[in-house]
Amino acid sequence: METEFKHIPIMLKEVTSGLNIRPDGIYLDCTIGGGGHSEEILKHLTTGKLIGIDKDQDAIDACKQRFKDKSNLILYKGDFKNIESILKELKIDKLDGVLMDLGVSSHQIDSKERGFSFRFDAPLDMRMDKSQPFSALDVVNKYSLNHLTRIIREYGEESYAHSIALNIIKNRPVNTTKQLAQIIENSMPKKVVFSRNGAHKKTFQAIRIEVNGELDKLFETIMFLITKLNKGGRMAILTFHSLEDRIVKNAYKINATDCLCPPGTPICICGHKKSVKLINKKPIVASSEEQKENPRSTSAKLRILEKL
Ligand SMILES: C[S@@+](CC[C@H](N)C(=O)[O-])C[C@H]1O[C@@H](n2cnc3c(N)ncnc32)[C@H](O)[C@@H]1O
């Protein structure tokens, strides 16, 4: 059965050239999704190999179908947080390139029954991994006022977090995307609802990040994967909001800096040596043509490093 999976890969050329692919290299796509970036990576490989991971079985099924003729692609359904044990299981010690294209795919957002979007009325869900028991229903119906406020404020950077959380709790049980969207609208002044391009976006993003633990262990995973890169190996990470980008920027910076002693320390006592160089000091953003064609690319930032 053909699994339809719609997702336009973002900054495809920039990502592929940024990875500086060796035809005989070992590459890891931590978030294979519909395989748009992976297809380009595979085109550059001869004797090399690509490992493609995703926690969404739909993505793995779609890639199995799309790449059925590719014997140099290993697909793995799993969470990149567990990359250390996944690489051990696959008996892979070193990598020549790593790609992370963080967040959700268009397939996930546009599948009504996955309950990610306020554009469709559907049961709240938002799980990338459908085998995970914990969903958006648990977050909106079980969290305390403080917990819910904190999630919406921190992960959504939403200034009406308290009022939204309070109204969610008053209206429990909250079961559907439209119900949640209505509660969010009712929790902020009408002029704010009209002035924002999508009044619900920030809260939906916050709940999605919480459901999927999107920021958990991201820093540790990047730090670990840098240790796995061969000399000259590249890492390319695409982020879609400031919380993710901050984590990536910080992990890159630590690895690209010689001494991590507190400012003002007269001589270095930490002995830390940089292990990477940054290929781009400022994040790469999508061209204006791409932003016009694919609005999802507007918030994307690409950071690339190379192992020394
Ligand atoms: C933006 S899409 C990737 C799209 C892909 N680059 C393409 O060109 O089709 C992100 C994918 O990463 C997956 N994902 C997000 N967090 C993950 C994690 N921690 N472990 C594994 N997969 C993850 C999602 O399920 C989604 O399919």
Q: Please tell me the total number of domains.
A: 2
Classify the helix fraction into a percent range: 40-55%
**CATH-defined superfamily of the largest domain:** Vaccinia Virus protein VP39
The CATH C-level name of the largest domain is Alpha Beta
| Main sheet summary | 7 strands, mixed
Q: Measure the end-to-end span.
A: 45 Å
Structural class: alpha/beta
- Secondary-structure element string: HEHEHEHEHHHHHHHHEHEHE
Strand fraction: 5-15%
Question: For the largest beta sheet, what order do the strands appear in spatially?
Answer: 3-2-1-4-5-7-6
Over all CA atoms, what is the radius of gyration?
21 Å
What distinguishing features does this structure have?
308 residues; Rossmann fold; 41% helix; binds S-adenosylmethionine
Task: Explain this structure.
This protein is an alpha/beta fold and 308 residues long. It has 14 helices and seven strands. The protein has helices spanning 12-19, 36-44, 57-66, 83-89, 106-110, 136-142, 145-156, 161-170, 177-186, 190-195, 201-212, 218-228, 242-255, 288-293, and strands spanning 26-29, 49-54, 73-77, 95-101, 229-239, 276-278, 301-307. It has a seven-stranded mixed beta sheet with strand order 3-2-1-4-5-7-6, with helices on both faces. Strand 1, helix 2 (36-44) and strand 2 form a beta-alpha-beta unit. The longest helix has 14 residues, at 242-255. Residues 7, 9, 31, 33-37, 53-56, 59, 79-81, 101, 103, 105, 128 line the site of S-adenosylmethionine (SAM).
